[in-house]
Amino acid sequence: MPAGAVTSEPATSSETGFPPAIRTDPNPGWMRMVLHVVYDAVWIVAIVGASPWWLWRCARDREFRRMASARLTFGLPAPPRAGERARVLIHGVSVGEVKAAGPLVGLIEGEHPELEGVISTTTLTGHALALRLYPQYTIVRFPLDPSFLVRRFLRRIAPTCVVLVELEIWPNFLRNANRLGIPVAVANGRITSESHRHYLFFRRLLPQFNRISLYCVQDERYARRFLELSREESRLVVTGNVKADALETTRREAPAELRRLLGGERAQPVLVCGSTHEPEERLLAAAWRDRVPKARLILVPRHPGRAKAICEALARRGCVPQRLTDLRAGSEAPDPSRVALVDTIGDLEGVYGLADLVFVGGSLVPHGGQNMLEPAAGGRATFYGPHVDNFRQEAELLERAGASLRLAGPEELGATLRELLDDGERRERMSRAGMEVAATQAGASRRTLEALGRWGLIPTADP
Length: 463
Hints:
The protein has 463 residues and is of the alpha/beta class. It folds into two domains: 30-247 and 443-454, 3-Layer(aba) Sandwich (Rossmann fold), CATH 3.40.50; 256-440, Rossmann fold (3-Layer(aba) Sandwich), CATH 3.40.50.2000. It contains 19 helices and 14 strands. Strands 3-2-1-4-5-6-7 form a seven-stranded parallel β-sheet, with helices on both faces. Strands 10-11-9-8-12-13-14 form a seven-stranded parallel β-sheet. Helix 7 (171-179) links the parallel strand 4 and strand 5 (184-189). The longest helix is centred in the N-terminal third of the chain and has 31 residues, at 30-60. Mean pLDDT is 90; it is low at 1-15.
């Protein structure tokens, strides 16, 4: 099943030769209605029960208050008026999905000026990044899933179609999209083995996957999993990984400001640890101190809100970090002998440009890993821990080419750091291989856009 090829010949009577977009409820009947009533009741109980905590958080945290208000569908734009452009809703849960959507968003903007893009996100970090990456678009929060909130959201946004980046399955959202005649597609689809098992278990209670008009998936393995859930091969197409389209396959350098504030001294090797999770910062700092203390260590936690706790934890172990926000404010002078902590959103790609060696976090703990293709495409030797279920395809591509290294566990950190930082020729080979691998993965966004047209979710570019 090569990238861009349909998994089988669609069985359809439509003139295009592809199954029509789903614009009605494929699961009618009173039993399904009862299931959704029960599901709604669970949501209402959960919201009421959690309301004291929500109110307390809202009173203390302005950003959380804005997020809560938006997910309850306050502050949405008005529906488009007659004569205004039709809207396409593109949803990415968090930072990775928001960035991955970039090339597809750009193609839609360039080739379909009659469509207005609306970007929705869920997390605080994803929303902040969307505002920075897509200033020309309307940015909204994805709603909570009670029926009345979902209906209000969809009627206010009034999209002509919805594109879910990677996967975001909410029963009421999909059901109401069907009932309002709004087709839904999955772009860059992937599903882990654990999530696949969970969805299979609950499939009979709340069937969801037959509500989606089109699955544009990353590879054959994910296609097989989606096929088992949806049972509609004619709605599956393997398009490749759109994240590769967002990557420049050249050796990128860091912006001058980051070089000044975070760069190492002359000939000092720089180790960047990106998208780290608890307790990876402590494990990495200990390995750095014990085996390569002369290197410049830069930690970039996945969630910047953890910065204070990380600083306190490292300080108790004799490593007092310098925070990027303090360096930018001028309250401290850069000291390459100390650990640097990037406590901001949106700087990771630039910080990777400082690195001689990159560790990709979320992988020493059973989180599933983060995107290791990004630093590899930028010409950086890359390594990570054993837990890469969320990015298994990317890891396997890089490892087959000799562009990255997977550790068996935290006990290998120190020796691997020393070995790779001492071997410049090996790092250079990994660097070249990473850029070559990333270059071979380009084109998924174009194939996705073409599929959206062929399956009737957006207008085709052909006359």
